[in-house]
Structure formats: C-alpha cells, structure tokens
Amino acid sequence: MRSIVRDVVKEPKTSASTGLLESCADACIANNLSFSGILQDPSIEGHPAIYWAIVKRPSLDDFELITSLMSHSAPLTTETMAEVRLACLHVGDQALFQCLWRSPEYGALSGSDRMLLGVTSPPDTVDVVELPGQDGLFAVKLTIVQFEKRMKVSGEISFEFIARGRIWRLKFYVTKNDEGQPGPWAVMMMIMEQSPPTNLDARVVIKEPETEPTNEPPVESPYSILASLWAQPSASSPKHNPPIEFRLKTGSSELNPVKAGRRPEHNQKVKVLFTDNTQGSTLQYPDSPYYYPDGSLKVTLVASLAVRKFWDVFQPFC
C-alpha cells in the first residue's frame, strides 16, 4: 500500500492517481486498516504523501490530487498540518495555502464558527501583497465575516498566510482574567515553525466603511432631522471617526517561530489590547461604526521586517 502511495505522488497523473487512491481506501476498509494513517506516515523521504503532492504539483490550477489526499488523510494530525505549511512555504504558494487552509480537513474554522456561519455565509478573505524594497514590506487585506459575534461566541478568530518566506498567524482573541472571565479583546501576531526568526514592525488598521453617495431626494418628514443624525457620511464627507491602529512591534529580540499546538512564549509573539486604542473598544459592540451593514470587518495589516519608520510607504494601501 505504501509503495502505491509513493508511486502516486512520485508521478502524479491526476485522474488516474485519484482513482488509485480510491481503490487503496476501499482495500483498507476491507482489511480494517487506517488509510489516513498510511497517508500521514512520513515514510516518503521523511515526509507524508501530501507534502510531495504539493511540492510536485504539475500546474498552478491542478488541485485534484492534493484535495483527494487531504480528504483521505482526514482528520489531519498536527504534524501533517505542519507538513502542509512547510510544503506551501517551500514553493511559496500563498494561493494554494489559502485554499488548503480554508478546507474542512485543515480545520481553520472552529466548530462554533462553522455553526455560526453555516453554509450560506461568504468566506473570510485574505489577500497578500509583497511590496518592493529591502525591508521585507508586505500588506494583507482581510474581510472578516460576523467579526463581533464570532469573537463573543468563539473567543478567537485566526488567520494564517505566507509572506516574505514565512508562515504568519494573525489572531484576534478575547483575553481571560485570573478567574477565567472574559477581559479586553486583543490582537496577536506570530510566525509558525519552519519560518526563520525576524524583526517585525506592523500596524493593524481598521477604517469606517466607505459609503456610496446617493442620488435619492431627501425625505420630507418630521423624522428627517432625526434620521440625519444617524446617517452615514457620504464618500465626499470627512470621516466621523479616525482609523483604528494597533501597532505590533518586536523589541530588543527577534520574533521566533512557534510550534503548532503550543502556546507562544514571550519572544514568539507580539500583541496589543484593543483598549490601547481610544476607538478600539467600540469593536466589542455590534453598533460600532467600523462594522459594515452585514457585520463584516475589513482589516489591513501593513508590515516591515525591519524595525524603522515606514508608515508613509503604506499609506496608499490602507
């Protein structure tokens, strides 16, 4: 069985390969063997089958063998998820990593998030842009669905992405006090295992929703003045609230990678509380002016791997 799996990833032929995997899965069921365990065994030159399927992917739009291996490997062990990260990192494939990261097999969404979002809610989006320069500049734009509700119910929302040769994790979460009661909300950033240490100077920026100007005539009624008090400003009007900015910056030591499943140590994370920003605490309420009408939150992360004043470089991207 292991030799067949090895041949499948050594010379992938997509439809023929997936057919072989199906036959192997049926044979394992008939003989009471764990096909998932065989696939996740790092017996192919020190790596499991999914690692080699990713690094040997014949074309950018060929996902069939990889998704089939992911499906047959489920539930993925922590070690296999680390191998998925490593393979995507080795080929620098952020697009593929995002597809795999969102898959049910990878389990990026918590059980409570899956219950809240169901099957009809649009997915969160993560768009990464690496910018030219010697300081390792990059920007990440996120759209987070039902942010406030998920924070209160699930307690955290995490994202993983590839940028500047590293796997990053950006985590929004609810802190706990000594009695285990909910405390202020916070945002944390770290790099995952297999990523080299680095300095980091980043900002998380959240702006009010942009509103489109309307051509509708004003409503003539006794309530029009009251309604105007809560009306969103037009696109040409100055914003009522300044952007929320959280700075995530390493100090005297570099940011070191954290192993999946482990709690990050002091030198493996940078974090800031929402209460450190005057407007940040408003995100804990559903009527915060920073939420879009559907409850989503748009977040821009801008970062440099060199600790320096770089904010002007990123202004056009925020």
Termini separation: 52 Å
Write down the domain tally.
2
Number of strands: 9
What level of helicity do the residues show?
25-40%
Radius of gyration: 23 Å
**CATH topology group of the largest domain:** Apoptosis, Tumor Necrosis Factor Receptor Associated Protein 2, Chain A
- CATH architectural group of the largest domain: Sandwich
User: What about the largest sheet?
Assistant: 5 strands, antiparallel
Our estimate of the beta-strand percent is 15-25%
Q: Which strand order spans the largest sheet, edge to edge or round the barrel? A: 1-2-9-6-7
Order of helices and strands: HHHHHHHHEEHEEEEHEEEH
General form: globular
**Helical region count?**
11
Mean pLDDT: 85
Description:
The chain has 318 residues and is of the alpha+beta class. The chain folds into 2 domains: 1-108; 110-318, Apoptosis, Tumor Necrosis Factor Receptor Associated Protein 2, Chain A (Sandwich). 30% of the residues lie in helices and 21% in strands. The chain is built from 11 helices and 9 strands. The strands form 2 sheets. A 5-stranded antiparallel sheet has the order 1-2-9-6-7, with no helix packed on it. Strands 3-4-5-8 form a 4-stranded antiparallel sheet. Strand 3 (156-163) and strand 4 (166-176) form a beta hairpin. Helix 2 packs parallel to helix 5 (64-73). The longest helix is centred in the first third of the chain and has 16 residues, at 15-30.
